[in-house]
Design brief:
Helix content is about 80%, strand content about 0%. By secondary structure, the chain is mainly alpha-helical. It has two domains: about 1-30; about 35-74, no CATH class. About 0% of the residues are buried. This is Transposase DDE domain-containing protein.
Length: about 70
C-alpha cells in the first residue's frame, strides 16, 4: 500500500473525492444515525436499498426519467 501511495501521492485525495462523497450522502439520508435493522443480513439489505436509491437518483440526474425508463425497458 505504501509503495502505491509513493508512486501516486494524489491517489488518496482522488479516492476521497469520488468514494467518500457517496457514503457521506447516504449517511445524510440516514439522518446520520445507525442502521434501523439488526443482524448482518438485515443491515446488508438496508444498505443495499440506500445504495440502490442513490444510484437511481444519480441515473435520473444524468439521463433524465424518459431516457432512464427507455434504457430499463431495453
Amino acid at each position: 500500500m505504501r509503495h502505491r501511495l509513493d508512486r501516486m501521492p494524489n491517489a488518496m485525495r482522488i479516492r476521497r473525492r469520488t468514494v467518500e462523497h457517496v457514503f457521506g450522502t447516504i449517511k445524510d439520508w440516514m439522518g446520520r444515525s445507525h442502521f434501523k435493522t439488526r443482524r448482518l443480513p438485515n443491515v446488508g439489505t438496508e444498505m443495499s436499498l440506500h445504495v440502490l436509491a442513490y444510484n437511481m437518483k444519480r441515473a435520473i440526474a444524468l439521463l433524465g426519467t424518459i431516457r432512464l425508463m427507455a434504457a430499463m425497458r431495453g
